[in-house]
Amino acid sequence: MKKNERATLLVVIAAGISSIVVQLITIREFLAQFHGNEFVISLILFNWLILGGIGTLVAHLITPRYWEASSSRLCRLSFILAALSVIQIYSIRELRDFFFVHGSSVGFYPTLAYIFLTIAPYCLLIGFILPYSLFVLRAETPDYSGTRIYITDNIGDITGGALFSFALVFLVTPLKAIFIANLPLVAASFLLFSLTGKQRKYLKIIPGAAITLLVLAAGIFFEPFSLAPSEGKLVHYRESRYGRIAVHQDNGQYTLLTDGVPVFSTQNQSIAEETIHYPLAQLDNPQRVLLISGEGGIMKELKKHGLKTVDYVELDPGITAVQFKFGLIENIEGLNVINQDGRAFLADSDKIYDAIILNLPEPDTFQVNRFFTDQFFSLVKRHLAPDGVLSFSMEGYDNYLAEPQRQKLSSLYNTVKNHFKHVLLMPGLKIFFLCRDISIKTDIPARLAEKGIIARYIRGYYYGNLTKERISDLNNLMDPNTPKNSDDSPLLMRLMFSQWFAKFSTSPVGFIAGLAGLTIIYLFRIKREEFVLFSTGAMTMGSEILIIFAFQIFYGYIYFQIGLIITVFLAGLLPGALLGDRLREGGKQILVLTDGLLITLMGILILALKIGGDHLPSFFFLVFGFMISLACGFQFPVALHLGGGGNSAVTRSFSADLIGAACGILITSLILLPYFGLIWAAAGLIFLKLASLIVIGAHKA
Q1: CB-side neighbour CA atoms (13 Å) of 174
Q2: pLDDT classification of 691: cutoffs 50, 70, 90
Q3: What whole-number distance in Å separates Cα of residue 34 and Cα of residue 47?
Q4: Integer Cα distance of 609 and 487 in angstroms
Q5: For the chain, how far is it from start to end, CA to CA, in angstroms?
Q6: Could you give the angle at the alpha carbon of 520 between the alpha carbons of 515 and 521, nearest 5°?
């Protein structure tokens, strides 16, 4: 291998490391800025892949006609790429309040546009660099293998995914991670330029490298300032393995935020009283309470009931440490802090409780939705005493209950009513569900007075806000025909999605129709083997999203395993591409066989989900992910060989793979999963691959 070739491949590997780390950090930044969920994550990945595909096509259009490929230009582009990674993160943090009202929620289309604009420069350039590096190599070796570049890029992606998931996210802040991830790119680019032999230009590259390193270092220096709130001051900041933890102080009040969402405050008296006293007022002498997540002031209210034990389950140990440090929760007698996923804790426990209180946000993610399904309520029922009570809350309303919200509440009502004889909704700023097998008492102040418990907010405002008529009206609005919410058919996710659009008087139909139209036009313009890669990209990313969501549903958000899933999907592409490159002469027959294998694997997943569900071992999902990515990686070199292997074939193949992956993400996460559930989402990916099988199988070689 020539020195220039080795140095160019090092640049490709380093660019892969940088791009994956920057992508994962970008996702976390958008989550923090937009209180994001899987829908927002899908928009990020969709834009990332679409822009990368456009960058790849641009490389084909301007090289070599207008911009001859050279090692020196590749080096300069790499320096710009490294600097753009810092600028991108600062743009996401600083421009949100410029385009949108501070603290306001943002609709689907503004979110989509903001994501597109802030990540466009970096994504276009990363898409451009991969084929451009191939053109640099082909300037010296005209028949240089495009598959080799694909394999080399996979090595960088795998390294970047593993580096971030198992090291950087635990050890450093986002801008420090970007600095570390881009050091190999700066070094590899400098090495490549030093081998060009152009000594006069050699001095010109030193300022470029120095400026790039200065930008990366400046990112670290100014990072604390970029996290400062617009009101009050930042008194604590930490990047946990589960997300960003920040504490803001304003006028003596502390507010804890996770990923930009306020979850604890020292002045939440009304919510704390309602959360605790509504359910515990139903019990004559409660002794054992399970609290899944908490609220500021909640322990103070629990203490009034003289409980024997309080098991407080909070997933992130970093959150509980901050709560105690800033006095957001009180260390009361009998308190047991358990840092574990709440559903996993119940599944492994044999404890019986007098009350189980969920203090969770609305189920706008699959991670939270799993606490509001038929399967979870069945689990809760097994852990409650005969007269026990379950309580949880949803967003309230003022005077009018919008139809999407009514359907959401109705679905929850019908789901939990399947397990409890009595279910009552209590209106207010939050709508509280009280669920038990014996009658539910609505005169909460009278019950508290009988027990000698003082609750100032409830005593002063309850009768004015919660009249019998208002309680009756809300419960009578529940629609008995609304389907129940389950693990494998998450109706609440679809309703929350619809509610997001209804809130801003918009609809996803226009976006979906426009995307479908552009996709159809694109599909009519590509070759058969490119359609195979399009469907393969969609299958790969669709399966990855499907497995991550399935793992969240069944096991909860355990960071190590999800990081491992992502890395496994990246790792399977590499041996698949190596094997496919060796057997590419098989051509059409190889594509037909691998399409059949992908369909078979997805069929096995459907059977496993139907039969095993949450009893499947985590190892099953890892093996499935590796096999899917192995088969998908196998197809790229074969399809590239059928396309001729020239510069045009390489860029068109890269683009087909990226655009297909983008469509797979969007279709799976925004349409198939929320509207049809896990089983039919997997079936949808099978139908896509059947189309690919028909297209390539019917073609006469």
Answers
A1: 30
A2: confident
A3: 16
A4: 11
A5: 35
A6: 100
pLDDT tens per residue, range 273-305: 889 999 999 998 999 999 998 777 788 889 999
pLDDT digits (tens, 9 = 90+) for 643-660: 666 666 777 777 788 888
Q: What angle do CA 477, 480, 483 make, to 5 degrees?
A: 120
Domain covering 1-227 in this structure, CATH number: 1.20.1250
CA pair distance 3, 243, nearest whole angstrom: 42
Given pLDDT bands bounded at 50, 70 and 90, which one contains residue 669? confident
Reported as type and span, the H/E element at residue 409 is helix 403-417
d(CA 300, CA 309): 14
Which fold, 507-701? Growth Hormone; Chain: A; (1.20.1250)
244 to 126, 138, 262, 572: CA distances (angstroms):
27, 44, 12, 30
Helix (H, G, I), strand (E, B) or coil at 150: helix
User: 529: Cβ–Cβ under 8 A, 6 or more apart, which residues?
Assistant: 591, 639, 640, 642, 643, 653, 696
CATH classification code of 268-486: 3.40.50.150
- 290: β partners: 311, 356
- φ, ψ for residue 35, nearest 5 deg: 50, 45
| Peptide bond before residue 386 is cis, with ω within 30 degrees of 0 | no
Report how far Cα 267 is from the mean position of its chain's Cα atoms.
30
Q: How many CB atoms lie within 10 A of CB 28?
A: 20
| Contact status, residue 202 vs residue 193, Cβ threshold 8 Å | yes
Exposure of 646 by Cβ count < 10 A (0-12 exposed, 13-18 middle, 19+ buried)?
A: middle
Q: Which of the two residues, 359 and 501, has the higher pLDDT score?
A: 359
- In the chain, residues under CATH classification 3.40.50.150 are 268-486
Domain with CATH 1.20.1250.20 in the chain: 507-701
